[in-house]
Amino acid sequence: MFPIEIARMKIGKEYKPFIIAEMSGNHNQSLERALAIVDAAAKAGAHALKLQTYTADTMTLDIDEGAFHIDDPENLWRGNSLYKLYQQAYTPWEWHKPIFDRCKELGLIGFSTPFDETAVDFLESLGVPCYKVASFENTDLPLIRKVASTGKPMIISTGMATVAELDETVRVARESGCSNVILLKCTSTYPATSDNTNILTIPHMRELFECEVGLSDHTMGLGVAVASVALGATIIEKHFTLSRADGGVDSAFSMEPAEMGQLVKETERAWQALGRVAYGATEKEKASLQYRRSLFIVEDMKAGDTLNRDNLKAIRPGFGLPTKYLDVLIGKRLNQDVSKGTPVSWDIV
């Protein structure tokens, strides 16, 4: 089952977190900007860059009323029709190849989220190494079957899905030819808040579905992502832009280059810190043992003198007997002359 390999990069608990920069619609309909986002993602240290492959017509109908109009006052995209939103956000299909080519030049793994079967066929023609399934499509079983039939790793966001729905999705994916399923804990609000993220689900999901698990993160900042690594997340996906000030459909909850660089560093540090269950001094701590407290003679003394709390003390460094023997030694007589600063050993009493 573990590890999974995508374009020769291994994903699993034994490897540093796999960081995906999600471009989505942050190109603002400029190929030049899209390529600049690829450059910035590579410079920040991300391991992969993801697109979304659809058109407004493959997503919805060109209707601006009723259920097709976004009127929720708390929705980031309120006032738009679904059709107009996807027109703004989609990545022209003719851009995919130059974007993926730039990814290859810079050592990034380029792939995408298909939203219908035609998108899967198109991405197959470009030779993508894996696929992402978005939260809103994680119950679209015909699409799941189509993607799984490629035999390539599937990264599936789990936003809104019940355990029963995820069980069905994972079963269908595996039965349809995908042996490498990765689930991403996701909260489908934009932006998401940390108190609505529930990342304790990550280890539970790993055990329940026996697969790699990561995080598709729509919160601001690094905290949720770093904490998720501590809970076993092996993939982190974050929306990415050159600058939130530039605007765009996803800019409000997207990371900027400096933040992405910090995400790469801090999630790797969190992964390194996990280590293993260990007690006692590590190899690098052993030199510090000498600075523990231990028992020392703290004044010049003669043979036959009696040890008491004035001439015997627990101080640093740690070259004398352990301090737990203090009460045992009080009242003992010295068998030799000793000078101030002598570490106590059994052979002087």
Automatic annotation (TrEMBL):
Signal in keyword set: no
Limits of the AFP-like domain: 294-349
TM region positions: none
SUPFAM superfamilies per the UniProt record, alphabetical: AFP III-like domain (SSF51269), Aldolase (SSF51569)
Pfam families documented for this protein: NeuB, SAF
Alphabetized InterPro entries for the sequence: AFP_Neu5c_C_sf, Aldolase_TIM, PseI-like, PseI/NeuA/B-like_N, Pseudaminic_synth_PseI, SAF, SAF_AFP_Neu5Ac, SAF_PseI/NeuA/NeuB
UniProt keywords, alphabetically: Transferase
A GO molecular-function annotation: transferase activity
Gene3D superfamilies attached to this UniProt entry: Aldolase class I, Antifreeze-like/N-acetylneuraminic acid synthase C-terminal domain
Its EC number(s): 2.5.1.97
Domain of life: Bacteria
NCBIfam families: PseI
Protein name according to UniProt: Pseudaminic acid synthase
Species assigned in the record: Desulfosporosinus nitroreducens
Lineage: Bacteria, Bacillati, Bacillota, Clostridia, Eubacteriales
Record gene name: pseI
